[in-house]
Specification:
The complex is a heterodimer of chains A (163) and B (56). With 163 residues, chain A is mainly alpha-helical. Chain A is built from 5 helices and no strands. The relative contact order of chain A is 0.17. With 56 residues, chain B is mainly α. In chain B, helix 1 runs antiparallel to helix 2. The two termini of chain B are 25 Å apart. The chains are: A mainly alpha (163), B mainly alpha (56). At the A-B interface, helix 1 and helix 5 of A face helix 3 of B.
């Protein structure tokens, strides 16, 4: 409901503003967020490999794939931070800028929280027997959350960068 | 996870006492229920889905 509310607000602002983004707003670069999008989508497949691994009792596989997912997530955040530092508009420049930072920033917080979840599962998996083929709810929960973050980003990317 | 463990501890405690006072094999029954709960973590998935719905 939170993201839905933010998307609705963005679309409402967009529909009632004659020119969108407002005149004078610097154009957004596409290459960096595009690469970031590919990384995040790919990370969803990578984290699924971890789920497949643990269902075969392959804890080493689980740890490897979770580590790879975490690295991809961290790369995404680093890319977003780089974009923030190089954007030619700030939080209060205009309505588009404000909604842009709120949407991407809120999503970035979710990615950061996802990284904490992944790190927690990775840390707990070091103990032998903590996760197994028939006992791995933590793995599934982290994976589901990560897919959610991924889907939200796809919608966000489409709305902010392509539409 | 903690809730599940607490439930299992309570179940084991209560069934031990019951098994002492009755002929019925409560322990086996409760163990079956606990195993089922551990195996089918439906309520946790539901909780997570509700959380994600609230977020999304």
């Amino acid at each position: 409901m939170i993201f839905l509310g933010l998307f609705t607000a963005y679309l409402t602002f967009r529909s009632v503003t004659p020119v969108w983004p407002p005149a004078g707003t610097p154009e957004l670069e596409l290459w960096l967020p595009g690469v970031n999008t590919i990384i995040l989508i790919a990370s969803s497949f990578v984290i699924h490999k971890a789920d497949v691994a643990i269902k075969k009792n392959d804890v080493a596989g689980l740890r490897t794939w979770f580590l790879a997912t975490a690295l991809m997530g961290a790369t995404f955040l680093a890319g977003q931070a780089y974009e923030y530092f190089h954007l030619e508009f700030g939080l209060t420049t205009n309505l588009f800028a404000s909604t842009f930072y709120v949407l991407t920033g809120f999503h970035g917080l979710h990615v950061a929280f996802g990284l904490i979840l992944i790190a927690a599962v990775w840390w707990r998996s070091r103990k032998e027997g903590h996760y197994s083929s028939d006992r791995h709810f933590g793995v599934e929960a982290a994976e589901l959350y990560w897919h959610f973050v991924d889907v939200v980003w796809i919608l966000l990317f489409f709305l902010l960068y392509l539409l | 996870m903690t809730i599940l463990r607490t439930e299992q501890t309570l179940m084991q405690s209560s069934t031990t006492n019951l098994a002492k006072t009755a002929n019925h094999d409560y322990l086996a029954t409760e163990k079956t229920i606990a195993a089922h709960a551990a195996e089918h973590h439906d309520y946790r998935i539901v909780g997570l889905l509700v959380f994600l719905l609230a977020e999304g």
